[in-house]
Amino acid sequence: MAPVTEHNPYRLSRVWTPRHYDLTLQVDPDVDPYTGHVRIDGDVHEPTAVLEVHAVDLAISSAIATFAGTRVTLTPRPRSEHGVVELHADAPMPAGPFALDLDFSGALRRDLDGLYLSTYRDADGTTHRIATTQFESTGARKAFPCFDEPDAKATFAVTLEIPSHLEAYSNYPVTERTTIAPGTDRWRFAPTMTMSTYLLAMVIGRFVATEPVFHRDVPIRVVHVPGKEQLTAFALEVAQHALAFFEDYFAIAYPAPKVDLLAIPDFAAGAMENLGAITFRETALLVDRDNAAQVDLERVADVVCHELAHMWFGDLVTMRWWNGIWLNEAFATFMEVTAVDAFRPEWRRWEAFAIGRLAAMGIDALPSTRPIEYTVRAPEDAEDMFDLLTYEKGASILRMASEHLGPEVFRDGVRRYLRAHAYGNAETQDLWAALGEASGTDVGAMMDTWVFQGGHPLVSVDPLPDGVRLAQTPFRLLAADDDPIGAIGSLWHVPIALRSLVDGERRVLLDQPEMSAEVGPAPVVVNAHGEGVFRARYAQQLLAQLAESFGQLETLERFNLIADAWALTQSGAAPLEDFLGLAERLRDERDPNILGIGQAALGLLERIAEPSEITHVRALAASVFGPVLDYFGTEARPTDTPQDRTARAIAYDVLGDIAEDPDVRQHARERFREEMSGIGGPSADLVAAVLGVVARFGDESDFAFMLDRYRHPRNPQDEQRHLFALAEFRQPALGRRVLDLAMSEVRTQDAPFLINRVIANPALQNQAIDFLFARFDEMLARFPLNTIDRMLQSIALVIGPTTYQRAGEIVRFLEEHPIPAGKRVLAQTLERYQVNLRLRARYAGRLTSQLA
To answer: Which one of 9, 131, 555, 627 counts the least CB within 10 Å of its CB?
Structure first.
């Protein structure tokens, strides 16, 4: 890694560093601009006539430095387009303590970054405006002048002067609220602990806070817009559990005096770990505990635990620079699942996490993958790191390391790491050192092969008389001889657990191209218990034995066997017949995650099928998922496990959509009519599936009901479900209405994902692509920049008989219209598109012989 001191036009000179900020903002969400004053106490490390600060789209009207009793007026001069402002003095200032006073003004932003504007309508239809913040990774400089780098930690004392009818929230508790003029109140907040600028938060608007619940003496509240009080209890319960769990796991007390969980109507991400004032999308925090779908409860529990884990991993100990963001996000993801698994063991969250790992591995097998950690120079480089590779792959290798070292040894290493770097900054090697001290092994030698190169291995398994031969090669979804390899690496230290279903289990470390391993009699599972981050390709003899013993495998072992077979089919490394042979076993499967792989595979086969072949895909879907739904039934049962609830919905969706089962379609229509009448309706877990089935075969009256329900929802999840169901209608006129809605009344946090779903709709793809081409510049101007790449991800699904010919046209358009952020994600989307087009080329027109 390049040292921090290397010249970088995006970074500030280390000639000075901050210690404390006194920040005062005068903000009225109904008025622009806002004004502010910041006093930064810091230290000048060598005589200088120039101080640098970060400031973007801010007007600095006054700059004064005070040192040794002398006040010096400074002249602001933007250094470059990189958000650096130079403050020039007439003569050098001496080394030592100093204070920097800056007056400034700025406009509330509309891009959900920095200090930005959010709105909501109350029950009477009145629109209310909110001023709120999102500072990660480089948004603080868009709100006030500062030293906006993660290792420039300081304390912050915030004062907000706002209209008297509004409420204000920040990281630490309010110490004083006074009226300073008619209609204006001043809110002072206690100084924070030492932390990075990106963790500062300020929220101003009409909000309601719940009565606090407590963990020890730490109050926990949910803050929300009026009228949503009934949706707060579950998040409070989760947060209480999480604080107790993390304090025990880390053996360090929660580092702030309060926890406010704030639901923000407009929010580009899922949530943000501001110390003591965590902000969320409403769907990630507010939920009806007694009437929610299982997936909605899991979503809220996951996100709340993830953000609270950050209070230690990220806030207390922070990466030194953005190349180490995985230290924050991967660990928060790992701890999120660990904490939720302890909160509700019956949810089996580590099994469900395999879906996230699978999605990350799908990206990691493409040439445009990246190492988990790489050099970051520009702010947009940091933005590219907020992806599945940082979160899910990062968490997966931590889980793998934990299982390899032993969970208690791993925890002890984590405690060492946090104690050593509390209130400071750290790098990846600091974590390896702490884990090495706890385990007595060279952890870095193994883990560096996973962090500093992209990709993951394909482990080939061949039988030997007393065990198996293991060989590793890089796994590539684009595996032709002339395909680029890109960032995919070449040799990993792979912890492998081997299990004989007859007798015996052992662990080995495959740190060379191949090795032999003794294990008990066949059948033998490689990646026993399913925690390894690699694909497995079994010799035909071994694969057949495992297929026959499918029911004896553990859940994650079955998951990996099916997932690896489908990935090998997609790459061309194995025939479709291998996957289809295993897919037949899904008739007796009850785990929703494993069924989800079958659902995704059948969905792709349906998309590539020629019209004459579609009946065979439908027949396969019916034969596999019909018995599953017969087992669960279409109605919720008191004996349902959490997995049953989700598995029923998957089977229902496959049968109602791909199989076009008339009984399921009729059932969906009946439950939808009950919903429309206000009497009855589908169970919470079936709502999304019912809406999807109705929409795919629905008419304008169905569309009108869903649109009205989106505009007048019962809760945030209800709003999202009905909005996204609108994208499932097949009529072009309705498709046009949905696209127009995305460019008008739909919140900019949701509109890109709505367009994504319309592009994915096989019946509307040509229309959606034409709309994208015609309105692309408007989309770039309207939507948050970090959502454009996500909007385009469904382009990889434009592979149907009437749309796949547009691939060249689509690629050319995107080459000629570069996006300002997310270029790597877009490159991955286009490579995934190539994978899907190759799958079509191999099997479209041949599916009858494969499936009949």
So the answer is: 9
